[in-house]
Design a protein that fits this description.
Layout (H helix, E strand, L loop, with lengths): L10 E4 L2 E5 L12 E5 L4 E4 L6 H11 L4 E6 L10 H8 L3 E3 L24 E2 L5 E4 L2 E7 L8 E5 L4 E5 L17 H12 L5 E4 L8 H25 L4 H8 L8 H17 L3 E4 L2 E4 L2
Parallel strand pairs: 4-5, 5-6, 6-7, 11-12
Antiparallel strand pairs: 1-2, 2-3, 3-4, 8-9, 9-10, 10-11, 13-14
Helix pairs in contact: 3-4, 5-6
Length: 286
Amino acid sequence: MMGEFPTGIAIELEPLVTRVLAPNASPYTYTGTQTHLVGVGDLAIIDPGPDDPAHIDALMAAVAGRPVTAIVVTHHHRDHSPATRPLQRLTGAPIVGAASVTVSDGGPRADAAFDADYAPDRVMAEGDRMSGAGWTLEAVATPGHTSNHLAFALPETKALFSGDHVMGWSTTIVSPPDGDMAAYMASLDKLMTRDDRVYYPGHGEAVENPRRLVRGMLGHRKQREGQILRLLRSADADVPAMVSRMYVGLDRRLVPAAERSVLAHLYDLRDRALVSEEGETWRIRS
C-alpha cells in the first residue's frame, strides 16, 4: 500500500523507535502489520510480521548492519510472528516473548490463525526484562485477544508496544477458545492503572492519549454486553441472529469476527451465571 501508508519504509517515531509497515493490508489488519525497531545501536525487533520477502528485505535495510539483540513477539498470529524464522537466520538473534500455544482455533480470520511453527527461545512473563544500549523492554501480560498476549513497555520514553490488545484503528477480535473476554477486560483494566505516554500498536497509528482510548474500549465492551442481555431478555437467540441485530450494516467480510466476539461475551456471561445455552440457542438464566 502506497501513499498515506507506505510499506517497506523505515519511519522514525521517536529517537528510540522506528516503524516499518508490512504489505499485508486486509479488513482485519487495516493497513498491515507494523514492525517496530527499538534502539539506536543494538536493536530489538518487535512483531516482525508475515514471512514476506519484501518485508524481510525492508527490515534488514532498516537494521543496516547493526546487531539485533532480540526478535520480540507479542503473540503468535500469522500476521505477527512468521518472520521470526528468516530474521533469526539472517541476524542470529533469539526469538523471545509470548509463549507458544496449542489450541484448535475456530476463528474466522485466516491471517490471524496461529503460527504453528512459532518457537520462542525465551518465554517472557509479567515483569521480565531485556535491555540494550539505552533501552529496556519490560513484558506486560495482556491476555484476552490470545491467552499468550504480551505488551512491552519502554520505560525510557514511557511508550508501550500494545500489539493487538489495543490497536490504533479498531477494537480487537476476541475469538474463543483461546480468546477470552473476561481476561481481555481485566487486561484493559490493568492498562488503566499505568501511566504510559503513548501506545505503538501492531495495527493503526500511534495512540497519543492511551488511557482515554482504553476507557472508551471498556465502555464499548460493556455496551455490547448490555446489548446482548437486552436482546436475550426479549427472546432466546443464536449468535448469528444476535449479530444481525447488533451490527446493522456491517461489512459482510467482518460478520464472522463479530460472531466470535459475541460468542466470547456469551461465554463470559455464562461463566457469571447470567445466561445459559442449549445447543446453539442462548437465553437469560432464570
